[in-house]
From TrEMBL:
This is Flavin-containing monooxygenase. Keywords: Auxin biosynthesis, FAD, Flavoprotein, Monooxygenase, NADP, Oxidoreductase. PANTHER family: FLAVIN-BINDING MONOOXYGENASE-LIKE PROTEIN (AFU_ORTHOLOGUE AFUA_4G09220), INDOLE-3-PYRUVATE MONOOXYGENASE YUCCA6. Belongs to the FMO family.
Length: 460
C-alpha cells in the first residue's frame, strides 16, 4: 500500500492541486497573489477570491475544531481551519468569566493525543485550559485562518465539492473581503454555544440599569455594593451569583424551572467520574437514585431553597433532554445563608424595578442574563438532512450524529462536552482517512488501467 501514501503525500501537500485533477498555476511563478500559505501554513490555493482546498475544511477553531485537525494530522491528513474571531477557543478566551474552571475533572476534558500536564490541578482554571489549547495547536501545527466567518456552505453536486463562503471580519486586515472555498469534506465545529441566547423581556428598553449576557461578564468587581438580578440557574448563573457575592454585590437568582443541583464531588471523588463508573455496573435509574440520595445527604433538600428537582433523575434528564445538572461550587451555601435570594420568573421590567410572576416588585441596578447559548449552524449551512433547523444540532442522537452525507461531518454537538468532541474527532479522522485511501486507490487503478490500455493500443 506504499503507493497510496506516495500519492496522498503528493496530492495533499501540493497546495496548488485541485481535487478535480486540475493543476493550478503556482502564484509564486505567475506573480499573482493567489496563495495564503505563508500566513497560514495550510493547504489552500487562491485564485482571486476562490480557494481550492484538497483536504477537509473545518469551520471553527474551538476545542472541537482543534481536536479534529489534530486527529487528521496524526493520520497524515492536512486540513484547513476557518475561525470567525481572531484567536483559537474564542468562547474560552473572550466570552467566559475570570473565575471559571473546568466543571469536570481534567481527565474528562483532555483532547485526543495530548493529556493535560501533571502539574495542572484536577479542575484547571480557564487560563490553564487556554494555555493547554494553545500548546495543543502548536504541537499539531494547527494554524487556523482567523477573522473568517462562514456565512454559507452548500454542496455542489456537479463539482462534488462543498462551496463555503466567508465574510472577512476586519476592514483592511487579514480577514478582509469575501472568499469562496471548495472542499471535498466539510467539518462543522462551530459549537453548541456559538450565539448567546437573549430572551425577550417586556420593558427591557425602559430599564435604567445595565443588562448583559454572561458572555460579557468577567468579574463581580464592577458590581460591588449593587443589587444584581441573575436570570437563569444553570452552571453559569449559579457561579456568577457566587462571584457577585464574593465581590460584595447583592445578587438574586431567577429560578423559573426545576433544576438538579449535585455536589461537584461525592465520596472523595468527582460526581461525574463516580457516575461514569457506576454506569458500567448499574442501570441508569439506579445510579440516578444513588446520586439523589447522596446529594440530599450532602446538600439537604434543595426545594427548601426554592430549587425544585425535576421528576426525572439527573442522568436520565441529561440523556433525554440534554439538560446538564448543576455542579455546586458553593452557591447553595450562599443561598442558605441568605446572601443570594431566589426569585420567581420575571413578568416585566420598568425603569428601576423588576416585576416578578408572583406580582412582587424589587429594584435592581443590573441584570445578568445567564440564559445560555445556541448553535448557529442553520444560519449558514444550506443542508437540512443532517442538522435540525430548530436547534442547530445533528438530528441523529448520540453517538451517530457525527456523520452526514457527501463528506459532511459534525464535531462537538453531542451535549457531552469535550469528552463527546474528542470521540467525534477520532471517528471523523478515521473516516476521512479511509475515504482518502479509497479515492487514491481509485485514482491509482484508473491511471494503471489507462497506461495498460495505452500500451496495448500502441502494440496493435
Ligand atoms: C462557561 C462554560 C463552561 C464550560 N465548561 C466545560 C467543562 O468544564 N467541560 C466540558 O467538557 N465542557 C464545558 N463547556 C462546554 C463547552 O462548550 C465545550 O467545552 C467547548 O468549548 C466546546 O468546544 P467547541 O469547539 O465545540 O465549541 P466552541 O468552544 O464554542 O468553539 C466554536 C468556535 O467556532 C467559531 N465559529 C462559530 N461560528 C462560526 C462561523 N460561522 N464561522 C467561523 N467560525 C465560527 C467560534 O468563534 C468558536 O471559536 C463549558 C461551556 C461554557 C459556556
Amino acid at each position: 500500500m506504499g503507493f497510496l501514501g506516495e500519492i496522498e503525500g503528493k496530492r495533499v501537500h501540493d497546495p496548488y492541486y485541485w481535487t478535480t485533477g486540475k493543476k493550478m498555476s503556482d502564484p509564486n511563478k505567475t506573480g499573482k497573489n493567489m496563495s495564503n500559505r505563508n500566513k497560514t501554513g495550510n493547504i489552500t490555493s487562491e485564485s482571486t477570491h476562490k480557494i481550492h482546498v484538497p483536504g477537509p475544511l473545518i469551520v471553527g477553531a474551538g476545542p472541537s475544531g482543534l481536536a479534529a485537525a489534530a486527529c487528521l494530522k496524526s493520520k497524515g491528513v492536512v486540513s484547513l481551519v476557518l475561525e470567525r474571531s481572531n484567536c483559537i477557543a474564542s468562547l474560552w478566551q473572550l466570552k467566559t468569566y475570570d473565575r471559571l474552571r473546568l466543571h469536570l475533572p481534567k481527565q474528562f476534558c483532555e483532547l485526543p493525543l495530548m493529556p493535560f500536564p501533571d502539574s495542572f490541578p484536577n479542575y484547571p482554571d480557564k487560563w490553564q485550559f487556554i494555555r493547554y489549547l494553545e500548546e495543543y495547536a502548536e504541537k499539531f501545527d494547527i494554524r487556523p485562518v482567523f477573522n473568517k466567518s462562514v456565512v454559507s456552505a452548500k454542496y455542489d453536486k456537479g463539482e462534488r465539492l462543498w462551496r463555503v463562503k466567508t465574510n472577512g471580519a476586519f476592514k483592511g486586515g487579514e480577514g478582509e473581503g469575501e472568499r469562496e472555498y471548495f472542499c471535498p469534506w466539510l467539518i462543522v465545529a462551530t459549537g453548541e454555544n456559538a450565539e448567546a441566547v437573549v430572551p425577550d423581556i417586556e420593558g427591557v428598553e425602559e430599564f435604567g440599569g445595565s443588562v448583559m449576557h454572561t458572555s460579557l461578564y468577567k468579574s463581580g468587581d464592577l458590581f460591588e455594593g449593587k443589587k444584581v438580578l441573575v436570570v437563569g440557574c444553570g452552571n453559569s448563573g449559579m457561579e456568577v451569583c457566587l462571584d457577585l457575592c464574593n465581590h460584595n454585590a447583592r445578587p438574586s437568582l431567577v429560578v423559573r424551572d426545576s433544576v438538579h443541583v449535585l455536589p461537584r464531588e461525592m465520596l472523595g471523588t468527582s460526581t461525574f467520574g463516580l457516575s461514569m463508573w457506576l454506569l458500567k455496573w448499574l442501570p441508569l435509574r439506579l445510579v440516578d437514585r444513588f446520586l439523589l440520595i447522596v446529594s440530599w445527604l450532602l446538600l439537604g433538600d434543595t426545594a427548601k431553597l426554592g430549587l425544585y428537582r425535576p421528576k426525572m433523575g439527573p442522568l436520565e434528564l441529561k440523556n433525554v433532554a440534554g439538560k446538564t445538572p448543576v455542579l455546586d461550587v458553593g452557591t447553595l451555601a450562599k443561598i442558605s445563608s441568605g446572601d443570594i435570594t431566589v426569585t420567581p420568573a420575571i413578568r416585566r421590567l420598568t425603569r428601576h424595578s423588576v416585576e416578578f410572576e408572583n406580582g412582587e416588585r424589587e429594584n435592581f441596578d443590573a441584570i445578568i442574563l445567564a440564559t445560555g447559548y445556541k448553535s448557529n449552524v442553520p444560519s449558514w449551512l444550506k443542508e437540512r438532512e443532517m442538522f435540525s433547523e430548530k436547534d442547530g444540532l445533528p438530528k441523529k442522537p448520540f453517538p451517530n450524529g457525527w456523520k452526514g452525507e457527501c463528506g459532511l461531518y459534525a464535531v462537538g454537538f453531542t451535549k457531552r462536552g469535550l469528552l463527546g468532541a474528542s470521540l467525534d474527532a477520532k471517528r471523523i479522522a478515521e473516516d476521512i482517512q479511509l475515504a482518502m485511501n479509497l479515492l487514491y486507490y481509485r485514482i491509482y487503478v484508473v491511471s494503471y488501467c489507462g497506461f495498460t490500455n495505452f500500451f496495448t493500443l500502441e502494440k496493435k
